[in-house]
C-alpha cells in the first residue's frame, strides 16, 4: 500500500513527479519546499534528497530523489496495468527509457541553463544565452522529428517519457519567449496531452503562491534586467 509524501515546488522537475502520481491515481501528501527561501538545503531535507533539490518522495521509509528516478520507481511499483509506462524488459520499455534519459540528461539541464542566463543570472553572457537557447531549440527539433513518425515519444502510448519533456515545453513560451508552433508535430502533441486530467491536476501541485500572470510579469522583469546589463557585466 502506498504511503507517499512528495516534496516539491512549482517547477518543471516538480511537476514531473506530481503529474506521474496524479496519472497513476495514487494517494499522496504534497509538502511545499520553497526553493526561493532555500528550504531545499535544510538538514532534515538533505536526508531525503542529499542533492538538496526538488522533487523527492518518501514512500514509507524508502526515499527516492531525482525526477527521473521517481518516475521510474512509481511506474515500476504502481503501474502494473501499464497506464503510463511499458513493462521492463520489452523493446518499448527501452525506447521509453531512452527518451526519458534524453530529457533528464539533455533538455532539462540545457533548458534550465537557458532560463538561468536569460532571466535569473547576475551577469549577462550573450555566449551562454545563445548556446543554451540553441541547444534547447535543437532538442525541440529532435522531439519534433520523432513525433512526426510516432504519436508519443516511446511509441503508441503516452508514457513518463512524454510527461518529462512536456513540462518543459509548457514554460518555454513564458520564460524564454519560444513559440512551440515552430515545431508543428511537437505543438500538436502538446495540445493533445495538455487536455489530460492527470496532467492538469499535477500542474497544480503544490498550490502556487504566484498566479500565471504574476510569474509572467516576474520573468519579464528578469529579462529586462539582463537586457539592461552590458555583456558579461557582473552584478554580484
Ligand atoms: N536532476 C534533478 C534536478 C532537480 C532540480 O534542479 N530542481 C530544481 C528545481 S526545478 C531545484 O530544486 N533547484 C534548487 C537548487 O538546486 O538548489 C531532477 O531531475 O530532479
UniProtKB/TrEMBL annotation:
Residues 89-210 form the GST C-terminal domain. Residues 1-82 form the GST N-terminal domain. InterPro entries: Glutathione-S-Trfase_C-like, Glutathione-S-Trfase_C_sf, Glutathione_S-Trfase, Glutathione_S-Trfase_N, GST_C, Thioredoxin-like_sf. It holds the Pfam family GST_C. Belongs to the GST superfamily. This is Glutathione S-transferase. It comes from Elaphomyces granulatus.
Amino acid at each position: 500500500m502506498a504511503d507517499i509524501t512528495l516534496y516539491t515546488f512549482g517547477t518543471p522537475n516538480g511537476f514531473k513527479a506530481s503529474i506521474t502520481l496524479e496519472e497513476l491515481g495514487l494517494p499522496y501528501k504534497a509538502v511545499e519546499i520553497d526553493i526561493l527561501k532555500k528550504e531545499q538545503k535544510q538538514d532534515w531535507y538533505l536526508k531525503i534528497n542529499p542533492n538538496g533539490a526538488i522533487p523527492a518522495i518518501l514512500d514509507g521509509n524508502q526515499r527516492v530523489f531525482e525526477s527521473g528516478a521517481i518516475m521510474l520507481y512509481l511506474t515500476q511499483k504502481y503501474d502494473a496495468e501499464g497506464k503510463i509506462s511499458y513493462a521492463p524488459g520489452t523493446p518499448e520499455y527501452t525506447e521509453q527509457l531512452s527518451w526519458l534519459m534524453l530529457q533528464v540528461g539533455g533538455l532539462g539541464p540545457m533548458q534550465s541553463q537557458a532560463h538561468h542566463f536569460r532571466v535569473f543570472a547576475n551577469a549577462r553572457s550573450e555566449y551562454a544565452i545563445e548556446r543554451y537557447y540553441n541547444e534547447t531549440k535543437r532538442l525541440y527539433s529532435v522531439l519534433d522529428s520523432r513525433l512526426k513518425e510516432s504519436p508519443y515519444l516511446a511509441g503508441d502510448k503516452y508514457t513518463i517519457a512524454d510527461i518529462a519533456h512536456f513540462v518543459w515545453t509548457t514554460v518555454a513560451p513564458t520564460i524564454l519567449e519560444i513559440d512551440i508552433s515552430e515545431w508543428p508535430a511537437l505543438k500538436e502533441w502538446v495540445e493533445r496531452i495538455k487536455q489530460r486530467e492527470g496532467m492538469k491536476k499535477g500542474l497544480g501541485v503544490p498550490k502556487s503562491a504566484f498566479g500565471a500572470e504574476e510569474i509572467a510579469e516576474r520573468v519579464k522583469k528578469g529579462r529586462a534586467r539582463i537586457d539592461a546589463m552590458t555583456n558579461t557585466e557582473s552584478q554580484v
